[in-house]
Structures are given as C-alpha cells and as structure tokens.
Design a protein that fits this description.
The protein has 98 residues and is mainly β. The chain has strands at residues 17-24, 30-32, 62-69, 77-85. It has a single domain (17-88), classed as C2 domain (Immunoglobulin-like, Sandwich). It starts with 16 loop residues before the first strand and ends in a 13-residue tail after the last strand.
C-alpha cells in the first residue's frame, strides 16, 4: 500500500502516517499498519488477516482504509480515507485472492 503527497500534519513539515483497515459494515474487524515516521510518501509492505471471517462473504464487504497522522501527546489527526467495495476488485473470494 502506498500513499503520495500526504499533507504535513506535524510542525516539522512531515507526518507520521499509519492506516486503519476495516471490513465494513462490521466494525469489529479492525487492523492497523505500522507507523511510518516523518514522511509524506509512505509505503507499507504488510499483510492483513481477518481471522474467523468467511472468504465467501468478502464480495459483500467494503474495505475501509483510513489514514491518520500519529501524535504522541494528542489525538491522532485524520488525513483521509477511502472506501473500496470488494465486489469491484478482481479475485476477491477466490483461493489465493485478496
């Protein structure tokens, strides 16, 4: 996963982005990437496993990716988000697919 040209949310002119990943409409399946320090162009090479979730139901779900700027002493800042209906992604629900 890659983000480009994120807005600077820190006084240093950069951000410390991470992504919260959810399968909607269930909000109980929530995972997060690692924080990428001091960058506006982060790359995450991570794999997410939604355990105890039937692969046959993926086509009816929406992948919600929400990018935040990590702040140590205050609430994390929202940078942006996207909703991806998995029915529009090829290979979803197939063995070895998304």
């Amino acid at each position: 996963m890659v983000a480009k040209e994120l807005p600077a949310k820190d006084l240093s002119g950069t951000s410390d982005p991470y992504v919260r990943v959810m399968l909607l409409p269930d909000k109980k399946h929530k995972l997060e990437t690692k924080i990428k320090r001091r960058t506006l162009h982060p790359k995450w090479h991570e794999t997410f496993y939604f355990e105890e979730f039937p692969i046959q139901k993926l086509n009816s779900r929406v992948l919600h990716l929400h990018v935040f700027d990590y702040d140590r002493f205050s609430r994390d800042d929202s940078i942006g988000e996207v909703h991806i209906p998995l029915c529009q992604v090829g290979g979803v629900g197939a063995v070895g697919g998304v």
